[in-house]
Amino acid sequence: MRSTDTAFIQWLRTTPNLWSADLFTVTLTAEVSNPSAPTGTVWRWTTADRDISHGGTTWSAAGPRIARSSWSSKAQLEVPEMTVTIDSAASELLGDVPVNAFVNNGGFDGTRIRLERALTPTASTAAFGTILLFEGRVSTATAGRMRASLTVKGDLLLLDQQMPRNLYQANCLHTLYDSGCAVLRSRYTWTNSVGQGSIVGTIVPATPLTSLAADGAGHALDPQAFAQGAVSFTGGMNAGVVRSIKVVSGGNLGLAYPLPHAPAVGDPFQITYGCDHTAATCKARFNNLANIRAFPYIPAAETAT
């Protein structure tokens, strides 16, 4: 049973012909690498061929082409699921990067998507009313050259989590730079550019890593600390692309996955420190043991009494 206001219910009962359109409200809830689309950014898109307005809010028909799968809702503890597809050209941007780069960079991680249906007696830009059909968060997101696919799961998913919350293990459970870790990304981020000899899988920094300034805590830069960190391109053909750094060898950055385009000399990028989630690294590199979520002194099972 779906509820709405009394006037709208009466209108539905007395109106023989209806015109409808899907309305999508997309709210970003994850920290993304794209500064023009920070946490809290809201996009409103419609499947109609014109903008749809209701209650002072407008859903744009000029956004990327969006569609959805069917879904079901049951009166039991089963997580509802819906697939949303976004088709876009390379020139269409989310924030300031192409849609596929935004998706692959984790821009939709944890994003909330609300689906409503707008109803009106004719193909009008103003809806008489809306009905909430589905609401949930993105669980997985993938993107190819022209199409992105988002799997959206209902909030019952929150009940499907490991208990107890704290898993006792030697490595820290925090994600580096998240709110629990509390390390400031800006203190461990440097600006550089692509140098001669760079390829899609290896970046040769124009400024040698050993020549970069000390970190935000005043410690001398350690080139090996970039392993498990990230490189984020801010210009050139790879603008908006983020790649994990697998290894640092000879001052060059070996990427976990190749870039979509060959980097050009002079392309600007930012690099950040990584972390192996051990107590030793947390103390020596970040001086952050106060926030570590690890239990390195658990005795081995065969010696515990």
From TrEMBL:
Pfam annotation, one family: Phage_phiJL001_Gp84_N
Highest rank taxon of the organism: Bacteria
Signal peptide bounds: none
Domain Bacteriophage phiJL001 Gp84 C-terminal: residue ranges: 225-300
InterPro entries associated with the record: Phage_phiJL001_Gp84 (IPR011928), Phage_phiJL001_Gp84_C (IPR018964)
Coiled coil: none
Protein name per Swiss-Prot or TrEMBL: Putative phage protein (TIGR02218 family)
Organism: Nitrospirillum iridis
Lineage, highest ranks first: Bacteria, Pseudomonadati, Pseudomonadota, Alphaproteobacteria, Rhodospirillales
